[in-house]
Structures are given as structure tokens and as C-alpha cells.
Here is the input.
Amino acid sequence: MSAGLLAALLVLLGWRVGTPVLHLWDESRLAVNAAEMLRSGDWLITRYNGRPDLWNTKPPLLIWLQAAGLYGLGYGMWAIRLPSVLAALATAWMLYRFGCQVLGSRFVGAFAALILATSPGFNGTHVARFGDYDALLCLGLTAAALSWYRHAQQRQARWLWQGAGWFALALLTKSAAALLVLPAVAVGLALPSAGRWVFGQWRTYAAIGLAFGPLLLFYGLREAAAPGYLAAAWFNDWYGRLSQHIVTLDHPWWVYFQRLLFPDLLTWSLLLPVGLWLARPGAAAPAPKRRFAQFAGLYILVFLLILSAARTRLGWYSAPVYPLAALLCALGLEHLTRLALHAGRWPRPVVVGLLGLATVLPAGVLLHHEQTRWNTEKTDPMLRYGYQLPLLPATRPGLGPFTILREDRYNAALTFYMAALRQQGFQPTAIAGTAAALQDLRPGQPLLICDEAMQRYVRQHYTTQPLPGPGPCVLLKIVGRK
Here is the structure.
């Protein structure tokens, strides 16, 4: 990979990753799981508030990586998000290598990596720039699919076993979600005749069967350590998401196809039909590119159809199709570029300029969207703690025990920030700002309040002494009741 391409990917994938606040769903929950795993020293059971977590029942591969990040980097955003950033970078690098080695085109490899990094469906919420499961899942499934494709084309057993290894890692990342790669790859290899031979080989089934071994071993050990886990995992990760809505959002069945065209690929989606056009028999494309276009098109179609059949539909569930979609778009872009240079006889500087514009436009839109989102989040009452608590060690280093008056609702981000402060020697406690609690505040101890209604109530009913502090919250000391 050229230094210029690597630098562009680092900017696109890592820009301001360490500055935004933790999100409530599901990033902060995983951050708390990682913090409690590191604190307890139990690397088998994920916990929340000291108890085994039966809401987040995914396997612990990502939690292990995040706990290691907290140990090595401290309790900050980079520790939580670095596994996702590195997984996204590795996925982009894999596309570049595949384009060079299998499709015989550095152009396709480089632009596939850039297309992926400038697509909100991949480099956006829940995936590349967040501490969620999906970037690591994308890496495992993309590596498995491309390895198995190479095995079918080159008939080298190492690609079969390498794909099985990546599939095993994907299973340890998000369990049931990893299974979608199997029918998608199977159809992609079976319909074009060149790949059908793999289905008559016992090694194919042995490799896939063995890939389930680490997940099954974890399931057995986890259930033995704290019974009840398998029942919760069966509902949360397997049967429940397929059979019923287990979240409040209710998207139509076609949402994944709509998002593929816009907004998740931005302007690159215009190239997707061109890439698919190259898959037809007799297309003016070399055989390796035509065969891969057939495979990628079928892979994406089957993957999205299965997702659409499930009752729980969330936008980021389709993230694993975007690496192969990026390769298809890059094939389409290469085809149009060749037509412009040779058939149309466009001047090369004009073509190069248009390619630069085609890259800069979605990159600018993506980064502008992220900047706008971060600015909007500053007004979200549930996220205000992230703009206040991490700054306390620098602004109030001598602050003793203090109480956070919080909203009476779930807030895993606050739980993580408090764990981070305890690691730095602070002694925060949190109480829900119920009517009874607001009427029984005791003098003396500093009180951090982020909710504006609670701030007004406390100032109306108590004599307070303001303490200097940054951010949208206020730090007060209760002097007495008015």
C-alpha cells in the first residue's frame, strides 16, 4: 500500500475518533463491560454493575480487545475505539491487496479502499469509528468471503483454512450475525460454474465445522460459570432477532437495499450498476474481474435478502456487504476510466482531475456529516457527562468525594466515566434525581448536576456555593435549605 493511500485512510478512519463522547447504544455498554472485566480479572464473564450481563450476550472477543486497550492506553475513547479503527484499516488494506493480487489492478484495490473509507455505511455509526462489534465483524466476514473465493478460483487449501479461521473470529465477535456469510458465499460460488467444485470436497465442510469450535467452547465454559447465559443468548442473539422486534425501531423490509443506494455509499452508489454490468456473460472485462463481479453481486444480494427477512432491522446490520460493494464500485470506476481514456480519448489530466473530484466529494460530505453530528450531540442531555467528567482531573485535581445528580434512567456512558474517574483517584457517586432525593440533599458535599430542570430546583430550594468547572454541567456545594 502506498504511503499516500495509507495516509488518506488514516485520516478518514481516525479523524477525531478520540474526541466525541461515548454513545449510549451500544458503545457505552461495551465500554462498561470492558472496564469491569479489567477490574474483576474475570476474562470469561462480561459484567454490568457487578453482575453477569445477560442483556449484552455477544461473545467477548471485542471486549477482550477493549479491556486490553484500557490497560495499555488508559480510560479514554481511543482505548474503546481503537479495535474498530484497526479492524476498519485492515479491511481496507485487504481490499487493496485483493485488487492487486486477484483482480490484477492497483487502481481497483486503491479505489476500493478509498470508497470503503468514504462510505457512511462503513465509516459511520456503529462501525469503523465507534467501539461497537460491527467493524471487527466486517473484517472477519470480508476476510472469510475473499479467502473462500480465492480457494474456489485457485484450488489452494490454505485459502480454505484461512477463511475458516477468519470465520471463527467473526463467530467470536457477533455469533449469529456471522452465519450470514455462509449462504452468501455458497450462492456466490454455486451459481457461476467455476466455484461449484468446492461443494464436493469434504475439507470444505470440515473447515467450516471446525470454525464453530471456539464459539461452542466459549458457550460451554460461560454457561458452566454462570447458568442462564445460553437462554439469554438464544433470545438476544439468535432466535429473538429473527422472529420478532426486540428493539423499538421498525424499518420496512427493503431498508437495506435503499441504504445501499443512498446514503451509505453516497455518490459511489452510481458506480454500483456499472460494476454489476461487468458481471454479465460476454462483458468487456477480463475473466477474473467478470467472475468476481458475479460473486460479489450474488453475495450482496443474498446477504441483504436474509437480513431483510429478519424482524429486527437496524441500519448497521448491512455493514458487512460494503467491502464487496466497494470492490464492485471500484471495478465500475475502472471501466468508466478506461472508456474515457481510450474510447472517448479524454485528456489524461481531465480524467485524473475527475477521479480526484470523485474521491474528494464523498470524503468531504462524510467528514462534514460527522462534524455536524458531533456538534448536535453537544446539546443531547444524555451525552453531557462526556463533555464534563473527563475534564475533571485537569480542572479540579483536588476535588474530593462528590455526588452526581443524574436522570432516573439508563445511562451506561455515565457508568463508564465514573469508572474512569475512580481509576484516577476520584470518588464519585451517583444518585437518581427523583423528587424524594431532591428534597433531601445534605450540606457540604459537592454536587454535579447536568440536567437543567434539576439545576433550577436545587437553586430555588437550597443555598448553594458554585464551584468552578468546565462544560455544560454545574458543580455546586449545598450550604443549606432556603
